[in-house]
Amino acid sequence: MAQKVLVLGAGLVAKPLVKYLLEVPEITITLGDQFKAKADELIAGHSKGCSVEIDVNNEQKLDGIVKDHDLTISLIPYIHHLKVASLCIKHKKPLVTASYVSPAMKALDKAAKDAGILFLNEIGLDPGIDHMSAQQIIDQVHKKGGAIESFKSICGGLPAPDANDNPFGYKFSWSPRGVVLAARNSARYLRDGRIVETPGKDLFLDVFEQDVDGVGRLEVYPNRDSIPYSEIYSIPETKTMFRGTFRNLGWCKTWKLIADMNYLDENPRHVKGRSFKDLTAEVAGVNVDRVRENIAKKFKLDPASDIFERLSWLGLFSDEVLPAENSSALDLLVAKLQTKMEYKPGERDMVVLVHDFIASYPKEKKRERITSTLLDFGIPHGDSAMSRTVSLPAAIATKLILEGKIRDKGVKIPVEPTIYEPVLKELAKLKISCNEKVTEM
Q1: Given 33, 126, 130, 349, which residue is catalytic?
Q2: 129-249+346-382+436-440: CATH superfamily
Q3: Which of 175, 198, 211, 264 would suit a FRET pair with 19, their CA atoms being 20 to 30 Å apart?
């Protein structure tokens, strides 16, 4: 008898997951989205799939549909996961998400265990493949009697070189609003035994550059709070624990100015009939006449610099009328970015993930650097690299749970060999794998 999977959300990353699960003979899919047409498009009339319009705020309908399925995958915004999780506990159904575990989700661990079910979170790319590939190396080092002295993990979704044709060196392969909101995050990490704390306003000042095989030189800035990962990965011995984000050169200094100009403000503004130039002058607190030069003077920058060329290309100094009557500066910025940084038909994106370990082996009195690199490209007119690397780990884990090959219970992330070993093995068959290089120091 076929097992029924409920997939909530038919957004940017859902397609490879749906396609993978529809090819599993023992699985049928119900794809739910608030816009049924989006779900219809992904199911594409497949005999083992159906689509349904569903509003997660309609708890009665959501309750019934969760009850009627053997497992739920939540690809909707993380703020709705708890509502779905409570229904999964009620009906004793496992749950899979690619989102970070929130404190509220973590608090459901006992309830999930009591219900005899698994809530598997962070089973995407970052978080997800980064956890699994890192933990596999860490466990191998520990088995050989070694210790991790330093660990840096850096990931980014970027245009492939052949599609990198705008001054920002960036196009959106996931939520534009999510990318912009992340620009306000503070960060913490461990460097040489010392905790470094970077407030959100200084995020884009905490930057270094790194060469990546097959890609070239990229910028790196810290990603959220890295400190807990020493415990999560069972490496209390490490003196450096850093998680970062890759971007093309010039991104950080440009976004530092965007943030300083107060363009990340979410307060509603009266903008009817006004231009982007008007809004830019207002948020930056300068006179609208010669706005570019006034901003340069205020923030002590050269008005001829490439930073201003990027903002000019984006249209922030233009007379274009704002596309709303009342909206926040952040939302208007997101709308503008989305129109200017979309992938054109046939263009490829690229996912870059690099782990950099320094491991020591006291008995052998040796140290080594281990680098592990994942480089994946989108398929022209097909699936993006971002959608593949985010959704396929969740799809594979779903299949393994239903087959009884992953038997863990409670709220988990994929850092245990019972989870990461079979998922990484299956990803490798789909040509998603890391290349490792070991160099003695």
Answers
A1: 126
A2: Dihydrodipicolinate Reductase; domain 2 (3.30.360.10)
A3: 175
